[in-house]
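Why do we care about 3D structure at all? Because function follows from shape, and shape follows, mostly, from sequence. That is the central idea of this module. The next example makes it concrete: a single protein chain, its amino acid sequence, and then its structure expressed as tokens.
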Amino acid sequence: MMQYRKQFIALDLETTDLDMETGRIMEIGAVKVELVYDSEQKKIIAQFGEVFDTLVNPEVEPSPTALMLTGITRTELAQAPLWSEVKQPLKKFLGTELLLGHNLGFDLEFLRSQGLALKNPYLDSLEMAQVFLPLLPAHSLEFLVETFQIRDTISHRALADSRSSSVVLAEILNEFLSFGPKLKQSIRELLGKTQLDFRDWFLDLPEIKVREARRVQKLAGQKPGSLKVGEEFDLLEQEWPPKTLVVLPLSFSQQEELLMVLSKRRRSGLLGIAHEIYLNQIPQRQKLANPEWALCEKRLDWAKSREKLSGIAGRSLIKIAIFRDKSESLDLSELKWNADDHGFLDSVLADPDLCPQHQCGYFQSLKLKKNQIYGGFLQAIFSLGLFWPVDFTAEPVFLMELSKIEEEFTEALTTVWNLRKIRSLLSLVFPLENESPSASWYQRLPKEVEKVANELDLFFGILHLVYLKQPGAFAENILVDEEETGSERFGKLLSPAEKLVGKLETFVAYLALQSSAETGELKLELLALQAKLESFKNFVKEFFLDRSPEQLHWFKFNSKWVDLNLLPTSLAKPWQDFAQKFRSLTLLDAQTPESALKYFQDRLGLSDLLVQKMPASAAKFSLTPVKIATSAFTTHELFELTARFSGRSLLVVPNETQLAEVYEHFFSAKSEGAEVIAYKYSGNLSLLKSKFAKSPNIILILTTNVFLRVFVHLPPVDQLVLLRLPFEAPGTKHSLLGSFTANVFADHVLPRAVQILHTILSRVLASGAKGTQVYLLDPRTSTDYNQAFVKYLQEFPDFQISTIDKG
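And the structure:
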């Protein structure tokens, strides 16, 4: 057996700033490495050699963030050699050797911006981790170091990170060696069709005997704890009441347990679930894959059959092969995908115009078994009910969490078209220039396709030009209302839009003719493309030519692209149509503030909704003091306030800008009090959760968005501090949802912000701490917005309101 031996130089930089124009290098670490196969241990090991390790005087002020992440001091940098002194020795050390790094492309571009353009071949351990470890929740170097228990390393220091990326590569290769024979053979066949930089690193690995792995099936893991399924749940155990909002004042852990209980009942029904942590309580065989991300195995078989694969196709197919070997799921949203992957993914995902015709495995999975509860994310339920030809009329459906229901339903009804989407659809069948040929059915581009592609480029180019404010600058959102349609700039688009509609009509006819001449899967792909281009043609007519007052129209711009958006002005009729797809529809929520409840009822047309409250004994909270600031707190005053805290404290800030400002101040003004950790600065989210749960005296700083997305469960929290009212949280910005009304703030933003505040407080109080203190440091809480937030707090007798002054 030939000995496995690979040599390279691992390289990493630490910089003052991520911006290559303003940032400078402040540390370089490189080490010569050899990976060898140890026949006794039957694994790849990393052997380290000569190193290049130096700080660099950047001659600019480093950002506080860079100093916090690395621990490097300004004094150390002032005493370090200049870049001009380091540049040539580094170039000599690297020579022409193969380089390795984690997201090394960034480091190489940074070196180029500083005048050192290296031509060395290189490998990226981040790319390989994303491909061969697709089931991990994150692929940052810090997370991988923790996952593989790589010792004797200090994260965010150049030489340590260089060594770590080398060991990570060795572990990725060892992971491949551990795969079963069938999976390894499948991956080798895919690699053989590509020109991926890392191809030979896997093809050259020795053959070792490994048993075929059994497919892992995730089942509901936790056992019900304090939940007693008694008379208070009879309503849910028997028949879900239609047109009813069931208010369950339970903690979040108890709602998980309820889902576990319901999923094991021998009865039929669908559960629309708001958070991943809840969906994990549903056995895999009872999960509904999100149709937006569901794998169509028939399309997958065609993609794998190609003689040659692009790098993107090869990487994606390897990830899918590993995923399918380890899991029974068809939901590719369980994996991490880069933006570049989406063009290829479109060619293997389920399609409502296609899958019912060829009866793929995903479509077959939608034929639900009787006497079994199925659960899926809300967006999956909405997509299936609105757009897929599936008969659910025999099934009752239960949807969780009002705010998420309204947000996801609005998102599902918003029709979005842009040039990238259309070109991606065309390239699934035809080899458009600069598109991946591995995703197309035809070898040559028909002139009819080229003509319509050029017309699309021209139309969207005119659209950009017409709305150009100044080079590279656009308004982010523009409502196309009656005033805008009468404007001169909108008028310039009418003739191009009419011409585009004519071109699309001709092209749709061409697709119909082409599909009649084809057979098998290609015929189905052409018919699906024809249906989508017909929809786009009608969309253009609706948006520009035959406008309806029942639709909201708006542009969303940046410097490179524009989205055209349509949304019904009222959600009531679509909601009614959706509800009729099921035998009955029931909503589930924790107790909702009155103002927010009225908003959701009006928004979804639920005037006849019956609100049925369940007993609150299982979730009764002790009296919670809520202290409202009379004036705004500076960052220093905030630090002084939290310095008096003991136990676990959660500090929620509105956005990442404020988070950086607060954490930088806390970092520079260290005291002997609680440890301070923050999102992005103190490790990945898994590490933050672990630190926060284990430490009895700690302050965790999060943005509102991260808190709502990730921190559904919390350990007991002694202090909750909110810097701002949650107007910047997801769903509160009308521009993101297209909700343009006469008084959009009062009608839309304010009630949603009240609901989000309620969600934050509910999660913290459900953590089970005794005597939790809540600090609302936004003085607008009691003075502005018609005191909507004070009225909310007064609505619940569990809150004891007082004021807090600085000092």
